Amino acid sequence: MIEHTLLHISGITKRFPGVLANDRVGFSIAPGEIHALVGENGAGKSTLVKIIYGVMHPDAGEMHFGGAPYAPARPSEARAHGVGMVFQHFSLFESLSVAENVALGMNKEAVGENLDQQIIEVSESYGLPLDPTRLIGSLSVGERQRVEIVRCLLQNPRLLIMDEPTSVLTPQEVEILFKTLRQLSSEGCSILYISHKLDEIRVLCDRATVLRGGKVVGECDPTRETARSIAEMMIGGALELPEPQKPDLGEERLTVTGLSKESDDPFGVNLDKISFAVRAGEILGVAGVAGNGQVELMEVLIGEVLSDNDTIKIDGMAVGHTNPTQRRERGMCSVPEERLGHGAVPDMSLWENTILSARSHKGMENNGILDLGVAQGFGREIVDEFDVKAAGIASVASSLSGGNLQKFIVGREILQTPTILIILQPTWGVDAAAAADIHRSLQDLAKGGAAILVISQDLDELMLISTNFAVISEGKLSDPLPTGSISIEEIGLLMGGVHSSAGKEVA
Amino acid sequence: MDLTILILQGIIVAATPLVFAAIGELVVERAGVLNLGIEGMMILGAIAGFAVTYDTGSFLAGVIAAAFAGAIAALLFGVLTQVLMANQVATGLALTIFGLGIAALWGQAYSGASTDALDAIHIYLLSDIPIIGPLLFSHDPLVYLSIILVVGVSWFLNKTRAGLILRAVGDNHDAAHAIGYSVVGVRMMALIFGGMCAGIGGAYLSLVQTPLWVENMTAGRGWIALAIVVFAAWRPGWALLGAYLFGGVTVIQLHIQGFGVDIDAQLLSMLPYIVTIVVLVVISRDKIRAKLNAPACLGKPFFGSS
């Protein structure tokens, strides 16, 4: 049995204060196998791969690698064994060059004389071309991921761990990645693949291990399952998906005309003559590869960065010069991409975090004095309605898992019943069941007459919920089109920067 | 001609303590830590260096003691901010106040005492070259050490793997931790190096520049060193330039006062500070470049998980 197994783990248990993250987890991976690890947020996937990569250490259980006992004390030991990892939040350094980043991720002994040459050779032989001298900050997200992968490949890995690798890629980039992964697998390298995108797992993976609440609850051959059946194994119940809506659209609520803005950030994107309108009842989806102006657009729309007064109108009123609080008072709410530090204050409790954005809408303020009871009540309401898993409303925001904090922040904004909602990456890192909940509540909000702008990199999500659809690329926005009138392939081309005249022909 | 050489030599003497303090802080900030306690570490170095040299008669012992005193203070800062997660700004300010107080207490016994100045090393033959000789090859060993340090730090940061790791920790400490580098370990070592440099910089004041012990003799040089690091955009060569700019204006304004030019002495004394601030503002006017050069994690606390 041993010679058919590259990695075998059994009884892995890891406890954090208050949570059992992994409870006697065991499975094995064969050489050359592409093995999926799926589960809801907080199911313990990230903890498990961190243990395999030596970032964390298990409280109990054992691992065997290539037949020998394996217990890496630190990542460099894991790398020496031939285990490589591509992180969900890239472990890259923006102000350093590609070659420097690669060198940092390799063990000292493994860095050869001619690193630049090696990078070029390996990256080209796997169809992932890279220039070793460029700064990471100037690369697109897809290119950044290449850096991470090439860094692993240079060390001739026997096992490559990938945590949510496709959430930031265009459909074309995903295809290139899959080709690379299949090539690796045919060369005998095993791959441990974590993703929320179940359709991709069905296409790519040979086997899947399903985790729920830190335990292995099943193993399956994903090619023989449907995305729905895998999702139901993950949540241990039936999955309710939102239905596409055909709403009646009302008045224009948010109008943007000729919006241009230069970015202050050296690696930022300049917005270039953006025009669009969102009407009551409409969900406008904006797709695009990360780093094409999404964050910049959001900042200008919600008033963190000011623009020419007439370029942004709420219900016909020019608001380009008003600050975020004034825009909130006009009915605009927002969910930023960055949860900790932008959407919520990490060290404040959940109920304190409600005060930040809901203080005027929920009447928490009376002549400058805060009514804490109202804030706590509102906090409890969010936790109940959106099924936020937290010890209580007094837990600090940073103690929640990413998906749960996201549910809390989205809930906080939606429950203020805004007339305009700007939302970035509504379901980033959120599992299927919670994502369906968030999508349904967005649809309900729109049905009630709100105008919603969803900026996301998840095309499936946008196709599912948005009434109209546009693509942002290098700070330019294509003309919005009704969802359904445009194919995934065409969107992929738009995302890659082939511009909006193509979109017009389709309309 | 002699006067020019005298002025230029004076500039070197005025700039050297700043070179030490700034190059140390530069390494610390490149690792992502903001230590506002340089002034305190300098004054501790000044009194430790002076007291030990006075008591033992050995300059070497004094300089080592100064480096040691600075390192101890930096270690204290490191434990408070990196292990116990105290706020870096507040801890740095406290370290300055603490250092000034301790130094005054320790220095009570040495008030008004003086030692011989450290002898210059006249490099064989080279120091006999007119003009260039006295200017470049006839200084005390610490001046040479300061230049070697700048070159060494520049080489370390840009050419060695350890330097790359240090910059990586300053750029993104979460990623560095995920790849498997010890963020706290790297920062502690950077802090100790910074403390030693600041200590030697302080000792230069009490052993070479004056050479005697006076309370508060650092007179804000620690803060100037901090400003120089920013003005230099965290590059060692520019830090050297900044230190010499400040030292230069300090010495030249003294000579202007000496010539009896009709400008208030107080205004002239302000000149080095004003020039440094103006240059700093002009240089950092370009917001984008400033952001690109600054270590992205500067002053941010790191909470590692294990």
Average pLDDT figure of chain A:
85
Strand content of chain B: under 5%
Structural class of chain B: mainly alpha
Contiguous helical run count of chain A: 17
Largest sheet of chain B: 2 strands, antiparallel
> What best-fitting shape of chain A do the alpha-carbon axes yield?
globular
* DSSP summary: helix tally of chain B: 13
Helix content of chain A: 25-40%
Q: Roughly how much helix do the residues of chain B carry, as a percent range? A: over 70%
Main attributes of the structure:
heterodimer, A: 507 residues, alpha/beta, Rossmann fold, 2 domains, seven-stranded mixed sheet, six-stranded mixed sheet, 17 helices, 23 strands, disordered C terminus, B: 306 residues, mainly alpha, ABC transporter involved in vitamin B12 uptake, BtuC, two-stranded antiparallel sheet, 13 helices
Give a structural overview.
- Chain A is an alpha/beta fold.
- Chain A has 2 domains: 2-235, Rossmann fold, CATH 3.40.50; 252-506, P-loop containing nucleotide triphosphate hydrolases (Rossmann fold), CATH 3.40.50.
- Helix content of chain A is 33%, strand content 23%.
- In chain A, the strands form 5 sheets. In chain A, strands 13, 16, 19, 20, 21, 22 and 23 form a 7-stranded mixed beta sheet that branches. A 6-stranded mixed beta sheet of chain A has the order 6-7-8-3-9-10, with helices on both faces. A 4-stranded antiparallel beta sheet of chain A has the order 2-1-4-5, covered by helices on one side.
- Chain B is mostly helical and 306 residues long.
- Chain B has one domain (2-293): Orthogonal Bundle (ABC transporter involved in vitamin B12 uptake, BtuC), CATH 1.10.3470.
- Helices cover 73% and strands 1% of the residues of chain B.
- Chain B contains 13 helices and 2 strands.
- Chain B has a two-stranded antiparallel sheet.
- The longest helix of chain B has 29 residues, at 2-30.
- The mean pLDDT of chain B is 88.
- Classes of the chains: A alpha/beta (507), B mainly alpha (306).
- The A-B interface holds A 54-57, 74-76, 87, 89-96, 100, 103-105, 108, 111, 137, 264-266 and B 161, 164-165, 167-168, 171-172, 174-181, 287-289, 291-293, 295-296, 305-306.
